[in-house]
Amino acid sequence: MRAASLRILLIDDNKHGLVARRTVLEQLGHKVAVAAGGQEGLDQFAAHPFDLVVTDYRMPEVSGQQVIRKIRQQSPQTPIVLLSGYVDSLGLSEQSTGADMVLSKGPTEVQDLLRAIERLSRRRIPVKRAAAAAAGAPSRARKPKAG
Could you give the CA distance from residue 84 to residue 55 in angstroms, rounded to a whole number? Predict the structure, then answer.
């Protein structure tokens, strides 16, 4: 099963990794934006809605941990995948980072990322509905009748 087309933000200071991930995700029909660092990623996230964010952990200036924290403040429902070459050595986990999934960079990285995106896309809130909820717009969901 393949995830529906998503708006994905990739954040990493390694440009080669960004290009490789972007190419694969675009070939699968996703709309992908890339940011070459944490602050650039936060700026893009503030300017545009995304269905999912994939961020590196170790980046100069603004770390992946800071990116996760700030995105959670702005949009708690947005799924976030943390990619790092330091998962084991730093003991990174979903609980310690606040990410929805933590993946190791390496030989199976692309396959692991595709599985993570598929899994997280099943439980996502569509961007338009999430934006409307954040703006205080009334929900179109029907309330159950009392009685």
Answer: 8
